[in-house]
Design a protein that fits this description.
Blueprint: E1 2-8, H1 14-28, E2 35-41, H2 53-61, H3 76-81, E3 84-87, H4 90-100
Parallel strand pairs: 1-2, 1-3
């Protein structure tokens, strides 16, 4: 199982969009059983919130299925369990490095 974690600031727009887009891609190729794809944020300020409505609109417009979502801050175990952590901007990348140290799984 390949575990991919998308990470943005609050986990309400970019990271869940990355999560659901990649889920669609692997599903389209019949590979869903080979991946665990999730998302999180570096901040807890949006904790518990759903996906940002304009982000939902973009996914709907582009045929990207999504489900109920509750934003959360990345946990130590999520980081440790992930094979790949994809930070969606340089600020979030720096926050990951600061919190978890330099790690080859962070992109």
């Amino acid at each position: 199982m390949i575990k991919v974690l998308f990470l943005c600031h609050g986990n309400i727009c970019r990271s869940p969009m990355g999560e659901y887009i990649l889920k669609k891609i692997v599903s389209d190729f019949g590979l869903s059983d080979r991946f665990i794809i999730t998302s999180a944020g570096v901040s807890s300020e949006e904790e518990g919130n759903d996906i940002y409505p304009p982000a939902k609109a973009v996914m709907r417009k582009n045929g990207i299925p999504f489900s109920s979502h509750r934003a959360h801050r990345i946990t130590d175990s999520e980081f440790e369990d992930a094979d790949y952590v994809i930070a969606l901007d340089s600020s979030n990348y720096r926050r990951l490095i600061s919190r978890f140290g330099c790690d080859d799984k962070i992109s």
